[in-house]
Amino acid sequence: MLLFVIFALLMKLKINWDALGIGASLACAIHCALLPLFMSSLPLFGINIIDNLAFEAGMIVLAFLIGTYALFHGFRKHHHSWFPFLLFIAGFACLVLKQFFIHYATWLLIPAVVFIVAAHLINYRSCRIHDHAHADDCNH
């Protein structure tokens, strides 16, 4: 019941999902790029975020869910363009590959962040240009 109330309250709020997606992507990039600088001091405080696979997977899943929702909303209600989705998929492919090819993590992280943020920016701009564009497949 509590989940229903929270969901109902969230539906009344106007959330800019693209901005939230960009923020989650940038937070992930900052985590991946800056946290290794503090790697030597974190164990002194009992914090192990760097090699914590659950935390990494959680950040990836969170960014994926927010990004997918934002892009789907923009696609369905506004611009009907697949280009942001293609950029988003390319970015997430690099992000997931980064988890498996650890030696190339930085080289995969940079294009991942660029593609994901570019997808959100293009989606955001397309939504503003096409306030409510209709296509042949538009059912609303």
Q: Could you explain the architecture of this structure?
A:
- It is built from five helices and no strands.
- The chain has 140 residues and is an all-alpha fold.
- It has one domain (16-40, 47-129).
- Helix 2 (17-34) runs antiparallel to helix 3 (53-79), helix 2 packs antiparallel against helix 5 (105-129) and helix 4 (83-100) runs antiparallel to helix 5 (105-129).
- The mean pLDDT is 76.
Distance N to C terminus: 29 Å
Q: Give the % helix.
A: over 70%
Q: Give helix and strand order, one letter per element, not per position.
A: HHHHH
Question: Over the alpha carbons, how many angstroms does the gyration radius reach?
Answer: 17 Å
Number of helices: 5
Task: Give a count of the beta strands, DSSP E runs of length 2 or more.
Answer: 0
> Could you say which structural class the secondary elements and strand pairing correspond to?
mainly alpha
Secondary structure: elements and pairs:
Layout lengths: L1 H11 L4 H18 L18 H27 L3 H18 L4 H25 L11
Helix pairs in contact: 2-3, 2-5, 3-4, 3-5, 4-5
